[in-house]
Design goal:
With 208 residues, the protein is mainly beta. It folds into two domains: 4-84, Rossmann fold, CATH 3.40.50; 86-195, 3 Solenoid (UDP N-Acetylglucosamine Acyltransferase, domain 1), CATH 2.160.10.10. Helices cover 11% and strands 31% of the residues. The longest helix has 12 residues, at 11-22. Pfam families: PglD_N. It comes from Deinobacterium chartae. The record marks 133 as: Increases basicity of active site His. Acetyl-CoA binds at residue 141.
């Protein structure tokens, strides 16, 4: 039996499975470390068991379907022999010059413009827009409806909340969060949560 494993049985798994199906890619099953989910189905795809099953399959292929940036980072490190699959929904618009890393998911309605660079295990969620020359480092998540103007740089692990935005050329430091509806009009430091219009730091996150 061949196909792509979807890691995580939460709500985002539905989006990833739908994206894989729309792209014509075979889904082998869902893996989740919550043993109570085994035997369930998500969009008719069975939850087969824990993620350790990746170690029992030759040349496993998978996508991490978890919105948490930290979780995607930890899982990708736990299973280094896995071949991480990137997938773009056919109703997304991605310019041929854009670069997309392993394990990255570009969802329906998203737009990725020329010379944008998306690292590994990035999520460009439903209807988000990434303009020209943006850099999204590994484990970034731009939530539904995000708008990034040209040349924005999101360092590793940044979360841009629903309908947030960033003006041209700004940088958001690693593992920072911009709250829903926030507007980034200047550089933001690493490890902070910024909210509001304009987005201002609210508190410092605990770094692991």
């Amino acid at each position: 039996m061949t196909g792509i494993f979807v890691l995580g049985a939460g709500g985002h798994a539905k989006v990833v499975i739908a994206t894989l199906h729309a792209a014509g890619l075979p889904v082998r099953g869902v893996l989740d470390d919550n043993s109570s989910r085994a035997g369930e189905k998500i969009l008719d795809v069975p939850v087969l068991g824990g993620m350790h099953l990746l170690n029992e399959v030759p040349d496993p292929q998978a996508v991490i379907a978890i919105g948490s940036n930290r979780a995607r980072a930890h899982i990708s490190q736990r299973y280094p022999r896995t071949r991480w699959i990137s997938v773009t929904h056919p109703m997304a618009s991605v310019h041929p010059s854009a670069r997309i890393g392993a394990g990255t998911v570009v969802c329906a309605g998203a737009v990725v413009q020329p010379d944008a660079i998306l690292g590994e295990h990035v999520i460009v969620n439903t209807g988000a827009s990434v303009d020209h020359d943006c850099i999204l480092e590994d484990f970034v998540h731009v939530a539904p409806g995000v708008r990034l103007a040209g040349g924005v740089h999101l360092e590793e692990g940044v979360l841009m909340g629903v309908a947030s935005a960033a003006i041209p050329g700004v940088k958001v430091g690693a593992w920072s969060t911009v709250g829903a509806g926030g507007a980034v009009i200047g550089h933001l430091e690493s490890g902070i949560t910024a909210v509001g219009v304009p987005a201002r730091p609210r508190n410092t996150e605990v770094k692991s």
